[in-house]
Design a protein that fits this description.
It holds the Pfam family DDE_1. It comes from Mya arenaria (Soft-shell clam). This is TIGD4-like protein. This protein has 2 domains: about 30 residues, no CATH class; about 130 residues, no CATH class. It is extended. Strands 4-3-2-1-5-6 form a 6-stranded mixed sheet, covered by helices on one side. The protein is built from 4 helices and 6 strands, in the order H-H-E-E-E-E-H-E-E-H. About 20% of the residues lie in helices and about 15% in strands. With about 200 residues, it is α/β, with parallel strands linked by helices. The longest helix has 18 residues.
Length: about 200
């Protein structure tokens, strides 16, 4: 804001024509795409000699559908309390090509095999599966990958999917249309799913 005031004086903007307030600064940042980011420590250990993969990405995220907000506006003198955070959640596996023009159907994991809310539902817009912990496991992942491989084999296409190397993403062998790439320490560089899509 101070620098903007100096520039205004240099280019002889008449006094009072521009006010360099906090609102002006917010609009300036929005206009020029300036955002506050968390500095990724993982990026320091990236191998810059690795190939630049340009195909598909896959990652999971949890949806805490019963969780309340953990922040609110309140007068400073008043106490601000809440009950325990509700940990009920679903997990969704998201997979798309690097440009976002093609997306696989969401793969959603819930707790119940046949939830009551699905009673009269004939078709879901997602692939639904269940396990007790409601997290992606290596078993569920190794069930998902061959299904995707078969779909793309039938389409006559070959794709590369970049997967982060967590224990829930083991190597899957005997694939025809898919190549799974699990590079270590590459999430911060190659994982657009972590950079805002999810």
């Amino acid at each position: 804001m101070q620098k903007a005031k100096e520039f205004a004086i240099d280019v002889q903007v008449p006094p009072g024509e521009c006010e360099f307030t906090g609102g002006w600064l917010d609009r300036f940042k929005a206009c020029h795409g300036i955002v506050c980011k968390i500095i990724s420590i993982e990026a320091n250990s990236v191998d810059s000699t690795s190939d630049d993969y340009q195909n598909w990405q896959v990652d999971e995220t949890a949806i805490f559908f019963k969780a309340l907000l953990d922040k609110t506006l309140e007068f400073s003198a008043k106490p601000c309390h809440s009950g325990k955070t509700n940990k009920k959640h679903l997990t969704e596996l998201v997979c798309a090509n690097m440009s976002g023009t093609e997306k696989m159907p969401l793969h959603v994991l819930g707790r119940s095999k046949n939830p009551r809310c699905f009673k009269h539902v004939k078709k879901l817009p997602v692939v639904y599966n269940a396990n007790k912990k409601v997290w992606m496991t290596s078993i569920k992942f190794t069930e998902w990958v061959p299904n995707v491989d078969e779909q793309y084999m039938m389409k006559g296409r070959k794709i590369t999917i970049i997967v982060d190397n967590c224990p829930a993403h083991p190597e899957v062998k005997n694939l025809t249309a898919l190549t799974l790439v699990l590079p270590p320490n590459m999430t911060s560089v190659l994982q657009p799913m972590d950079q805002g899509i999810i």
